[in-house]
Each structure stands twice: as structure tokens, then as C-alpha cells.
Amino acid sequence: MSTAILLGTSRQHGNTHQLINLYLKYRDADVFNLMDYSISVYDYEHNNKEDDFLKLTKQLLKYDHIIFATPVYWYSMSASMKIFFDRLSDLLTIEKKLGKQLRDKSCSVLATGVDSEPPDCFEQPFILTAKYLGMNYENMLYCACNDNFNMNEHLSLLLSFINKSTK
Ligand SMILES: Cc1cc2nc3c(=O)[nH]c(=O)nc-3n(C[C@H](O)[C@H](O)[C@H](O)COP(=O)(O)O)c2cc1C
After folding, report:
1. Domain of 51, in residue numbers
2. Which residue, by CA, sits nearest to atom 2 of ligand 1?
3. Which candidate, 3, 62, 142, 165, has a CA 20 to 30 Å from the CA of 159?
4. CA-CA distance, 142 to 116, in Å (whole number)?
5. Domain of residue 37, CATH code
6. Number of folded domains in the chain?
7. 105-143 residue pLDDT tens
């Protein structure tokens, strides 16, 4: 089973990126960093359909499993990830054929934050969006990080996350 990791963070090589690096020590995956793409906010008129959203989505659709990797920013997914999620609406309107391809996919979440636990509301948009799009939502790994990402602190949680995954 092939895995794509979609990273949406405002900090290159920050905690979420390092969590991905730890994951990559144990599992193969290709990483797509939203910082490398120019994706604008949802437009009801679809005047932005030539931006990078479709290009990125077509690449992601080549994988069986998509991991959404995001820090917790103000109790939610990062803004770049939210913009990507809003744009998934394009797959229900102007790109329905692509949208249908999501139905065969599974997904999960890698997240970091400073609080010991994420707020209840954090995981809900991932679970509900996956359900709406017909994707199989698996699970979330949340790592509470202080200033620096300490790999040893998160290793056992990561291994348990990997073992629970259907891959
Ligand atoms: C704008 C902003 C908002 C944040 N809001 C939260 C929050 O609501 N809950 C939390 O636990 N941490 C919050 N944090 C801390 C980050 O989630 C934490 O430092 C995370 O590991 C940063 O990941 P990054 O290096 O990929 O950006 C916030 C950080 C920033 C910059």
C-alpha cells in the first residue's frame, strides 16, 4: 500500500516536519509540502482552477493512503491545511470524477501541539470530511511538543500508531 503525507505547517523543519521524519524512519511515504504549492482560498466562481490544487490532488490520488500532517494552530488544523480542505469542494463540483477516486482511499492524521492533549474539536473535521468524501478514516497520532521535537519522547506513540494502521 502506498502512502502520501500532505504537510501543512508554517515552519519548515519544525515539529510537524520532524514528526514526519520520524515516521519515515519506519515506513515509506512520499511527502508533499503545501509550502511548495500555490493554492488559493476556495472560490465559488472557480476562477482559481489553474492554481496548484488540481496538480497536487492528481498526485495525491496515485496513493492508497493519505496522511494529513499539521500542527494545532488555535485548536484547529493549520491555515494552509484548511485552505486545502476547503478546496476539496472543487472535487464535488467541477472535478467530480477526481472526487470519486477519493472513495477508494484511506487517511489518517499526524499532529503536533504544545498542550498535553489536542482539543476534542481538532480531530472532528478530519473524521467528518473523510466520511463525507467516502474515505476510510483510520486514526490520529498527536505528539505534545515543547520548544524542540524530542524523537525519543514520541517513538513509542509513533510505533503504536503505525501498528494500528491497516498497512
Ligand atoms: C499560530 C499558532 C497557534 C497555536 N495554537 C496552538 C493550540 O491551539 N494548541 C496547542 O496545543 N498548540 C498551539 N500552538 C503550538 C504549536 O501547535 C506547536 O508548537 C507545534 O508543535 C508547532 O508545529 P510546527 O513547528 O510544525 O509549526 C500554536 C502555535 C502557533 C504558531
Report:
1. 3-164
2. 73
3. 62
4. 9
5. 3.40.50.360
6. 1
7. 999 999 999 999 999 999 999 999 999 999 999 999 999
